[in-house]
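Supplementary Methods, section 5.1.

A reviewer requested that the exact input to the structure prediction be made available. We therefore reproduce it here, unchanged from the version used in the analyses.
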Amino acid sequence: MTLGIPTTDMSHALPCARHLIDGRAVESANGETFETRDPHDNSVIGTVVRGSAADGERAIKSARRAFDEGPWPRMTPRERRKILHDIADAVDAHRDELAMLETVDSGKITRQALHGEMPRVAQNLRFFADYAAMTPSEAYPDGAVLGYTLYPPAGVVTAISPWNAPLMLATWKVAPALAFGNTVVLKPAPQTPLTAARFGELALAAGLPEGVLNIVHGFGGDEVAGPLVSDPRVDRITFTGSSATGARIMAAAAEQLTPVSAELGGKSANVVFDDADLDIAVPESVKAIFAGSGQVCFAGSRLFVQRGILPEFLARFTAQAEDIVVGDPKNPSTSMGPLIEQRHLDKVHGYVELARREGGTVVTGGSRVTTGEMARGFYYPPTVITGLTNESRTAQEEIFGPVVAVIPFDTEQEALRLANSSPYGLAGILFTTHLDRAHRMAAAWQAGTVWVNCFFERDLRMPFGGQGISGVGREGGQYSRDFFTEPRAVMVRTH
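The structure derived from this sequence is encoded token-by-token as follows.
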């Protein structure tokens, strides 16, 4: 199969994404397919094989055989490193094609896909390849006994990735799993299958052995995802998605005591103190909620502003939100593209209607964009809501769209209480020029990541994940090594 789409014109190319199992592109066992559509205009851009439990079992069997009998787990980290760097080089060489696939499949603006996400895909591969090859392990000489730690691969990894950053988040899972010597079954989100399918082709062409990376397409529940999370031949499960789905996956995995790393939903607080530099705080706060059309798990969707600066901040924030250019993600001037699908658009607008019923005031936005060509797509404008409390459903439940509730506060203690008054705990954002306050807040904030005077700065060596219903476990650097390996203590008497 070839999924390459070199131009923005989709009229001549309707790709078909097949499963990748044991190094071959295959149809589903039941012969079924489904369509993948462009969120910009709801047009069909390709067909995808619809996996069943039988396909999931085939993929697990392939991955199990490749782990138990194949060369990949028995290669040295340096040998695996060479192949993963070659795959990263292939991603770089096909960056334009992959970015366009990401745009038409997910609605991601092409500029972001090309200059943000595809470079990060390659970085994921290179970082974990280097980390696995270069990170030392522990040795503890103690007289006549030498103790040391081995980090053998865990085995077969199920990786289930979401639709909001399709290939970047898929490789955030696949790269460390492969780097530490595991074999993988990847199930991309059914809304966004195309870049994963193309990535599988590139990985094989770059020298990845057959069966090491298997990709199955389809849906959750009892379909293709069923065996991927309940089969005893699976040794690790890594999942990014909603908290409700994460809970179901963990329940299925618990029957086999399979370890799960789950990065789930969020309702992150963004706290702006009256001493903040508004030239930084306003644009960063705009980015924190409206980047990716708000379809970001750690988006700053609860915006707490100290009361004394609320009028100025709100005026500047609203003005910048209204300056965001919503439109065709392939257009270089576009700043925000569509939502992923009709069902999700209905959900987002339903929460705006709920906010109105809860006593909120929609300052800007609040209704579907229906002008011009956007009428056929799933466009929703940046929406700013005031007049709510932190206890409202709009402020407590994950919307996953370009909707922010702006809520005033008076003191540092109140800000911290509000920030932590949520069942989610994925991220926090804080703007202040007082360094001592920043450290106090970060130390007491119940979240996996706290950004101070910035948003979405990342260091892949650091832990990423959430607490509460935002997830279980951490990944990144040593945390990924601990999860994707089976650390083993060895004690040797030397004399």
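The CA atoms of residues 336 and 464 lie 26 Å apart. These observations are discussed further in the main text.
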